[in-house]
Amino acid sequence: MHQLQAPGRAGRAMAEWAKQLAGIKGVVLDISGVLYDSGGEGGGVPIPGSIEAVEKIKASGLKLRFCTNETQATRGKFVAKLQRLGFNILVNEVTAPAPAACRILKERNLRPHLLVHDDLVPEFDQLDKANPNCVVIGDAADNFSYKNLNEAFRVLIGLENPILISLGRGRYYKETDGLKLDVGVYMKALEYACDVQAEVVGKPAERFFQSALAEMEVEPQQAL
């Protein structure tokens, strides 16, 4: 006859983890630096174990939403890249800054001057951009030239009520060839030059995460 063993450290850890998950209905995952590192010939490299982790979460029955500050491609192109890397991700599972910004622009009848990556411009195709009354800034990469920054500055400084909308406020991010300056650095430059406070659409803005939770139909206390 086998004697019953007292639960070991691993068993206690699992029990504690199960206790913490009580009442949890959804999971919100970051992407860049969590699921994969961007850059390189293939567009990025999955972080070991991340593909399997996504599959396990989906198999668990928990609702899953991916939040990203990716602003160098449309959401469709970004998801297609992740799928090529092996991730089981759909476009409607991803909350991204550009679609959220477009909703705000439409609600407020704003006409944006865009300082964004060329590959992101199609996200704004349905908006009137003539005679701009605001500036939208994203991770424009090589488009962050003096000429382009100065043009955005001139639009803002010429407005009676300048509005600067930033698709994130990160300082830097990691690609396969090293660290890169992020949109927040250039956002701060325009804030300082124009004496204006940017409205951040994307992480870590509370409204951005609330949008992701609403799309999952999950309350904040029910999510990880």
What profile does the largest beta sheet have? 4 strands, parallel
Low-confidence parts:
1-6
* CA radius of gyration: 21 Å
Number of strands: 11
Counted by DSSP, the helix tally is: 7
Q: Numbering strands along the chain, what is their spatial order in the largest sheet?
A: 6-7-8-11
Shape: globular
Distance between the termini: 42 Å
Q: How much is the average pLDDT?
A: 89
Considering DSSP H and I runs of 4 or more, what fraction of the residues is helical?
25-40%
Secondary-structure-based class equals alpha/beta
Order of helices and strands: HEEEHEHEHEEHEEEHEH
Strand content: 15-25%
Structural overview:
The chain is of the alpha/beta class and 224 residues long. It is built from seven helices and eleven strands. The protein has helices at 9-20, 50-60, 75-84, 97-107, 146-157, 183-194, 206-216; strands spanning 26-30, 36-38, 44-46, 63-67, 94-95, 112-115, 134-137, 164-166, 172-175, 178-181, 199-200. The strands form four sheets. The chain has a four-stranded parallel beta sheet, covered by helices on one side. It has a three-stranded parallel beta sheet with strand order 1-4-5. A two-stranded antiparallel sheet has the order 2-3. Helix 5 crosses helix 6 (183-194). The protein starts with 8 loop residues before the first helix and ends in an 8-residue tail after the last helix. 29% of the residues are buried.
Descriptive tags:
224 residues; alpha/beta
Quick rundown:
This protein has helices at residues 9-20, 50-60, 75-84, 97-107, 146-157, 183-194, 206-216, and strands spanning 26-30, 36-38, 44-46, 63-67, 94-95, 112-115, 134-137, 164-166, 172-175, 178-181, 199-200.
